[in-house]
Design goal:
Helix content: under 10%
Structural class: mainly beta
Oligomer: single chain
Number of domains: 3
Number of strands: 29
CATH topology of the largest domain: Protein Transport Mog1p, Chain A
Number of helices: 3
Mean pLDDT: 76
CATH class of the largest domain: Alpha Beta
Shape: globular
Length: 462
């Protein structure tokens, strides 16, 4: 594909990629892991990205882009002279952004309408950082050759690379029939194949180990009574491997624990590897992370942690798990359902304490609010207040003091599928990073990670 560029656009290599931001779990610390935003923006909303587009080329190569749009979700295929790439993206106020991928490549793109056509910028992902590499960016101007690829309401299910719709089911390995769904409250013995059809992932519990959900850490773990290592397992739809490795390694990053990378993250084909030396209150440790990517952009990761002298055994354990992994196109069923339920909702929690004695009193309160609007925007607010009074000191009277704290943030939200169910993704406008919160429903109550929240209609969404 030879790049083409309209004269009024800045060169792609100097462009600041508006979507891409570093990943962190630190944001929204008081509210106690992407691309698919399954949010309704109105049945009558315009769909400028739906249709069939063609890229004129001097060499005469056939380059065709077919897109289907439903609300804020766009999916389709890019055919380049017989080679097919899958396309998935999200629409916001600035245009369309997302990923173009095949079994061999994973590219980032941004697009916007240009007349009746489509202006697109595309770049490779840096294997070390997972971010778009400006040096590889190219700009392309596609011409529209047909209207919407499918009528509104039609299923958005393009055939994987190298297939037609009739043979799509055979394009990627299906999850094994003996799959046991990963669930809270269950124990999985050695030899069990555990996974999620929504996330499109599965793996086998190694010999002498067992697996299950550890509520105190909000993690799905693999442990043994006789062999070394604790393995944290995570999965997420539509996350590049380098980004996923960073996100998983953050599970061990605390205020009193230091992670030191042992070299760069290594990406070989569909597998990424990273190693860390860990220093903390319990002494020196080792962490080995191995991630496996699926052809549909989903990822399955294993983080094996233990004592420093067990490092070789931990690496072998992570590699064994990765070798057992089977990934297929995710159904995202739980994410779609959760996104529909959360649109227009306010999640909140609050607490207060008070007390005192004969001559003193104290009071403290805090509240957290998260508005998830149907247009894909969110607003986060945290408030806290503490007051203390001591009296009576005769002529001096009483003494009192108070303090308050607040935090606000805004951005876009979406829902992805994880190993144990849907995952709420908050993408901050200020570039501070993405926040991931697991969504659990227990006895009719909704939990973000391990924290129960109140659910009601948002009074702040238009």
């Amino acid at each position: 594909m030879r790049p083409t560029r309209p004269a009024h656009h800045a060169p792609a290599r100097s462009r600041r990629w508006r979507r891409w931001r570093p990943v962190t779990g630190a944001r929204h610390r008081h509210l106690v892991p992407l691309l698919v935003a399954l949010l309704t923006i109105g049945a009558a909303a315009a769909q400028p990205f739906a249709g069939t587009f063609r890229l004129p080329t001097d060499a005469g190569a056939a380059v065709t882009l077919v897109l289907e749009q439903q609300g804020a979700f766009v999916q389709g295929a890019l055919d380049v002279d017989g080679a097919r790439y899958q396309v998935e993206g999200e629409v916001d106020a600035s245009g369309l952004y997302g990923y173009v991928y095949s079994a061999q490549e994973h590219l980032y793109f941004e697009a916007e309408p240009y007349g009746d056509g489509l202006y697109l910028i595309m770049a490779s992902l840096d294997p070390r950082t997972g971010r778009p590499d400006p040096a590889t960016a190219g700009e392309y101007l596609f011409e529209r050759v047909a209207g919407a690829a499918a009528p509104a309401g039609a299923p958005v299910t393009p055939a994987p690379a190298g297939t037609t719709a009739g043979t799509a089911a055979h394009a990627a390995p299906a999850l094994p029939a003996d799959l046991q769904p990963a669930q809270m409250g269950r124990r999985y013995e050695a030899g069990s194949r555990v996974g999620s059809t929504s996330a499109g992932v599965s793996f086998v519990v190694p010999r002498d180990y067992y697996a299950g959900y550890l509520a105190s850490e909000n993690q799905f773990v693999i442990v043994s009574d006789t062999r070394p290592g604790l393995v944290v397992v995570r999965a997420l739809t539509n996350m590049p491997l380098p980004e996923a490795v960073v996100q998983l390694s953050g599970a061990w990053q605390t205020s009193d624990t230091l992670l030191v990378p042992q070299g760069q993250t290594r990406v070989e084909g569909s597998v990424a590897r990273a190693s860390f030396a860990v220093s903390g209150p319990q002494g020196q440790g080792a962490l080995h992370v191995v991630g496996v990517a699926g052809g549909a952009g989903n990822a399955l990761l294993f983080g094996a942690f233990g004592a420093a002298h067990e490092s070789e055994a931990l690496l072998a354990l992570a590699e064994e798990l990765a070798a057992s992994a089977v990934l297929s196109p995710p159904s995202r069923e739980d994410a779609r359902h959760a996104a529909a339920q959360l649109a227009g909702v306010q999640l909140s929690l609050g607490s207060s304490t008070s007390g005192g004695g004969y001559n003193d009193s104290h009071f403290s309160s805090s509240s957290t609010r998260l508005d998830l609007c149907s247009d894909g925007r969110y607003a986060y607010a945290y408030r806290s207040m503490t007051s203390v009074s001591v009296g009576d000191f005769g002529e001096l009277g009483g003494v009192g003091a108070s303090s308050s704290d607040s935090e606000e943030a805004y951005g876009r939200w979406s829902v992805e599928s994880g190993l144990l169910g849907p995952v709420l993704v908050l993408r901050a406008d200020d570039g501070s990073g993405d926040t991931y919160r697991d969504l659990h429903e227990v006895n009719g109550s909704l939990y973000l990670n391990t924290t129960p929240v109140n659910v009601g209609r948002s009074p702040n969404c238009g």
